[in-house]
């Protein structure tokens, strides 16, 4: 049996499928499970085996080629290269660490809310109401654009957040990742130029690159994007759109200043590009400052706004939406129809009813209070146990912290050593196009408990003191 058919995809992982496949094949090569100059499976064949689309395999092979793990022969295929090395272990590494089996395993890789916070009783009540009233019709296929009463509820909800919205311009999707895919297909033609913040959410890179776009990485600073560099690139390239998370960005937690948000909108108007705003977690603010989205400031209708509404209401339910300019609505609706006809009719009805009650507001306040306490505990334990050479900017919101190690220290090595302690974290290289190991890493606390933080942060701090 081919070793490639043994690749396992974790559908619950935040890592895009192409990164998981890339990492699996890379490890096969390093472990010499496949021999040098042997041919990788054809793209369509491996896509069929792993039940993913062809673009996912293309992206995985591209990352392998960037790291010189493979090479391609035009018209022939992709082959395993012949020289590879693992990150070397520092000679000074010597620390008596507890056995991994004696530690509390913790996953710091998930930026999604904890399923235990799901308001099960409210959900059951709403489902009973819907089934009693509508029977089997509750499962009927809704319009591709989305269940109209839900779109009306979303328009009212957005209006309360100072975002004017018509139900005609709202498109319900099966989560923010599908929203990204639908918008990318609507806007991108092969070789179009798309700008992204750097570092960036890996799922966005995978989706945008799969459409054949040329990606411009624009550095992200502590107060937002480097707009000087963005404008310089806009003068030389016709940018189709900019993808950004301006509030509690994933992975860095950076929130743009109001001045930078206003300047970006001015640049988008001047150079004629759209802004694709991914409003991931702007509501999860633990500081006192008012968080404004770009869409709230958008007077010229240049911002395409996407959001996963389920993260605020019922964690784990795949439901999001796109608020798009009128000129894009028909293409977006068509792309949604081609993707999966429509999002679950029952799920849309449940969310619609939930938005119309006050229950969701109290449930959200409880969730926000939970994550505020987790954030405060995590930052305190980091201050107590991490060496001063390991730095970060407290984001005051969202679900993750972005750390910088001292110069010359590899976060990939840190991740490998932490895994031996039962601690999973994301090294920073996965958030960049080139995937080259670097000195950044992310700790996400979406699914970590207070007990796990108290147990594992001291262990991670001890490890950092040795590696640094």
In brief, what are we looking at here?
The protein has 16 helices and 16 strands.
Number of domains: 3
Got a strand count?
Answer: 16
Cα separation of the termini: 43 Å
Q: In the CATH hierarchy, what is the architecture of the largest domain at level 2?
A: 3-Layer(aba) Sandwich
Average residue-wise pLDDT: 89
CATH superfamily of the largest domain: Type I PLP-dependent aspartate aminotransferase-like (Major domain)
**Name of the top-level CATH class of the largest domain:** Alpha Beta
- Stated plainly, the CATH topology of the largest domain is called Aspartate Aminotransferase, domain 2
- The residue fraction in helices comes out at 40-55%
Structural class: alpha/beta
Share of residues in strands: 5-15%
Number of helices: 16
Low-confidence stretches: 85-104
